[in-house]
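FYI - complex with magnesium ion, inputs then prediction.
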Amino acid sequence: MENLRVLVVDDEEDFVETIVKRLKGRGLQAAGVTSGQDALDLLETRDFDVIVLDVKMPRMDGIQTLKEIKKRKPLTEVIMLTGHGSVDSGIKGLQLGAYNYIMKPVPLDELLKQVGQAYERKLIEEGRLGSTGTVSE
Ligand SMILES: [Mg+2]
């Protein structure tokens, strides 16, 4: 997982800082931004394997951001972060191609597990796993 590149997108700056620090602590390459537009701007120059995306953000919300990410980087996996009042958006996210959604507050181990699984799906979709036995067909 040490080459796994994760982008955290959330309008709460403290949250982004904390999660990025913890992901780095677990050996992942993590970066963070605090708006959907900043995420799209960063994707112009950097690739990420998994994007952890807050649903509730001012201006461009998580759903709008997800649509734009999937247009630009269809293979990048996205995990939506929802609150109690925004589970519907998480489900909408799944319909728009998100890997999964997680309810805040996010337990780090759960987030890491989801990020790892999303990354595996990305590898499979990129056809990189080939004969490792992970793909059954
Ligand atoms: Mg938010």
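The longest helix spans residues 108-125. The chain has one domain: 5-122.
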